[in-house]
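#struct-pred
JK: can someone run the complex with phosphoenolpyruvate? inputs below
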Amino acid sequence: MDNMYDNPVNVGFKIPEKVSLKAKQERTIVKIAEVEAGGSDIIIIAGPCAVESSEQLFETARAVKSGGAKILRGGAFKPRTSPYSFQGLGEEGLKLLAQIRKETGIPVVTEVMDTRQVELVASYADMIQIGSRNMQNYPLLKEAGRCKKPVLLKRGMMATIEEFLLAAEYVLSQGNDQVILCERGIRTFETSTRNTLDLSAVPMLKHLTHLPVIVDPSHGTGLRWMVPAMSKAAVAVGADGLIIEVHNHPEKALCDGHQSLSLDEFSQLMTDLKKIAQATGRYIS
Ligand code: PEP
Ligand code: MN
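RT: done, structure tokens with the ligand placed:
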């Protein structure tokens, strides 16, 4: 019988088989078009919370690309707490993402919320995102596991590390090992930040799995001014990448403007991050 303590460390649970370092010793490199995550390069994903218009997307995309972002983010289907909030542009948003990719060559990641839309979203995106609220949507995880695109899996806001790994295991168990894990903050008793960004999840996950681990300091804090500090900290603890919300006019954003960096703030942060990366023996190219 398997011993639950038959782990690299005694974490008190059995590491799911396919995501474990026991199953695969070398680290998985996730390929998003030509971009490789999980190697020595630290991958920066940046862009607006939601695709709002072609002007907003294109201006933001060009700026983050020239600042060194390797992948563009932008939600077309948005999981909003209120049904009256902007829900995203839907397929029109996907088309805009595909258009900017065609023009600039930057790969794009966008969220899928519904099993019935996995095929549609995967046909436009270079990587599909499963959001925090859907981390335990098992039919969606299985569908993502059957699709041929890499999957950015965000930690559920109430999920333990074990539950997070089991969610990733669902995707791998369907034959797709191209999974990036994303720490995006969890709910605690703390109210001064939107979530509590659990940076200890980074070394823990990297200790337990072969999958790349990235951090979302935007949803992790909910505060624009805090994003640079937590981005630097995330790189310092060994994250393989960051996903950062950036908007050409944060004050006018239809979604999460208060936690979005301006184009100038993003550019300054990239300069600072390169130094931290280098100090840890890694690169932001
Ligand atoms: C997002 O990245 O757009 C998002 C909705 O994040 P999360 O699922 O982590 O809340
Ligand atoms: Mn957001």
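RT: quick notes.
The chain has one domain: 35-79+108-279.
The chain is about 35% helix and 15% strand.
JK: thanks, will look after standup
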